[in-house]
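The data are quoted verbatim for reference:
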Amino acid sequence: MLVSGLLAVALGITAVSLPVPYVVESPGPTFNTLGDDKGKPVITVTGHETYPAKGDLDLTTVYVDGGPNGPVSIFEAFSAWLDGNKAVYPEEMIFPKGVTKEQSQQESAVAMETSQENAVAAALKDLKIPFEQKMEIASLPEDSASNGKLRAGDVLVSINDKPITDLGVVQSELAAGNGTPVTVVVERGGSRVPATITPARTSAGRYILGVILQYKFTFPFDVKISLDKVGGPSAGMMFALGIIDTLTPGDLTGGKHIAGTGTITPDGAVGPIGGIAQKMRGARAGGATLFLAPAANCADVVGHIPDGLQVVRVESLAEARKAVELAASGADTSGLPVCTSN
């Protein structure tokens, strides 16, 4: 009896410590984009006048356990499921199958770097500060409609004689052509090279060139963002707001404590992120009273807002800035857009 009892206890301990294919997300720390991290300013501008800013424009983070970051046990997953501050997801919902820790960290670092460049571009566009923006082909899939005609490293110049200033120009021209061949001019090795391409039609009915693009910027001054051990693209909007405040006189926040999250495109569109429920809790724990949330995340916002935190739905940098400025003025913010269950 004693031996079998001890064996049962041992087996039970082993069972709760076994790894399970789940990921646990919990609130991470917040970082004030107007402040310092490890003694260094989060945002440093060289070559343009800057203005000291008060208040807080916090970016928010999430701790992620499981997957390539190390397995979680049955006990850890069950405890997290019972904890209202945490969320538990199947591993495949968060990470691609077979991804290593090194690959995940590299992808996260690249996403962070891209978000910072996009944030600078979006902020400068908002402030009407001119800069050079080009679209470069990063790669071509094997089944690309542009194989043999376009190459990685080509810079898009025009499509059907229309200058390519952003992705929207390409998409509009392809949609208007309804699958007819287009003439694309690229810059390659210092020369302009024309190519006639018949777009491919996707399962969703869209026409594409079949190329993976990346933006290349030349800014009139240097903006450096220093943040240790934080990756991913979700801080883009808050970086952009921090840059705007740094480059303009006065305090964008009016001394208020504001937090938020959301990806950003060079044109200022705010996109969805993961872990927003945990980010809202982290923001409130950090002292924020107003939170800027991507409109695309509203389904995950409703029902998860901590007490004392007003959440404003935003779709663009312009909307985010407007909300911050209204809060800074001390005016009533109850009329700002909110997430609803509809």
Observations:
- The longest helix spans residues 101-126.
- Residues 1-18 have pLDDT under 50 and may be disordered.
- The longest strand covers residues 22-32.
